[in-house]
Amino acid sequence: MSEHPNLTVISHPLIKHKLRYIRDKKTPKKEFKELVDEVAMLMAYEITSDFPLRKVKIKTPMCDMDAEEVSGKKVVLVPILRAGLGMVDGVMKLIPSARIGHIGLYRDHDTLQPVQYYFKIPTHCEDRDFILIDPMLATGGSAAAAAQMLKEEGAKSIKFMSLIAAPEGVRAFYEAHPDIKVYTASLDEKLNEVGYIVPGLGDAGDRLFGTK
Ligand code: PRP
Ligand code: URA
Predict the structure, then answer these.
(1) Which residue is catalytic, options 8, 27, 171, 203?
(2) Domain boundaries, the chain
(3) 176 and 140 Cβ atoms separated by less than 8 Å
(4) Residues 138-179: tens digit of each pLDDT
(5) Residue among 10, 28, 26, 31 nearest 160 (CA)
(6) What integer pLDDT is reported at residue 72 of this predicted model?
(7) Mutation to probe ligand 2, out of 188, 197, 201, 206 (largest number of atoms < 8 A from CB)
(8) pTM above 0.85, yes or no
(9) Who's near 104: CB < 8 A, 6+ residues apart?
(10) What ranges in 24-166 are assigned the alpha helix state H?
(11) Residue 107 a catalytic site member
């Protein structure tokens, strides 16, 4: 069995190329945000590849035909604030009808434990496909807590997407939620002694929003 049975690394050359600039500390804030959106959009293409289709009769200018359209449940994107917000526009480009929930969490600097400050998602969770979004899966604490909150509201179908994941976080998330698939653009080397991903990209929220 693979070391990370829940993990899919989406390693398209364009994603790797864009990630190289996202990681680069010289990349300015505006470009950083644009690149994050582009990678999020490319990842969304892959993450939605199992969406079911149904036949639908349409008329082209030439004739009648049986075309196909996505038939699945209503999609809800749930960014983990703040940094998850940075990926939402990119995913919305591919799934414009998606609803958006928000989960506010920050990591306590000393304990690295997630602290909740906001939670708002659509109703009827059991009938929806959730995509939980956060650029960084570090210790996995924030992602695991957010997934738990969705499950407690009745969510049955959840995927998690990140730009960069640490092996420690992927393992911790799998232990907490073995039923949830994790998608990332890169499985990095490790966490450092203060819980940052190495080589990583630094603090995703700060780089997106120009804080610090
Ligand atoms: C970052 C990141 C994740 C979390 C990952 O958020 O966006 O939510 O850390 O770390 P973990 O896997 O160890 O929980 P942060 O707490 O810095 O908040 P921010 O997005 O508001 O900057
Ligand atoms: N949060 C970040 O923004 N970056 C990391 O490397 C780890 C957690």
Answers:
(1) 203
(2) 7-50+74-209
(3) yes
(4) 999 999 999 999 999 999 999 999 999 999 999 999 999 999
(5) 10
(6) 79
(7) 197
(8) yes
(9) 80, 81, 116, 117, 118, 119
(10) 29-47, 85-94, 141-152
(11) yes
126, two tokens: 């059991």
Average pLDDT, the chain: 96
Name every residue whose Cβ is closer than 8 Å to that of residue 160 and which is 6 or more positions away in sequence. 131, 132, 133, 134, 137, 143, 147, 173, 180, 181, 182, 183
Q: CATH class for domain 7-50+74-209? A: alpha beta
Please give, one letter per residue, the 3-state secondary structure of 165-206.
ECHHHHHHHHHHCCCCEEEEEEECCEECCCCCEECCCCCHHH
- Å from CA of 117 to ligand 2 middle: 18
Residue with tokens 């997934």: 147
Helix (H, G, I), strand (E, B) or coil at 71: coil
CA atoms within 13 A on the CB side of 130: 31
pLDDT of residue 1: 55
In order of 74, 111, 156, the CA distances from 52 in angstroms are: 12, 42, 16
Task: Give pLDDT tens digits for 91-110.
Answer: 999 999 999 999 999 999 89
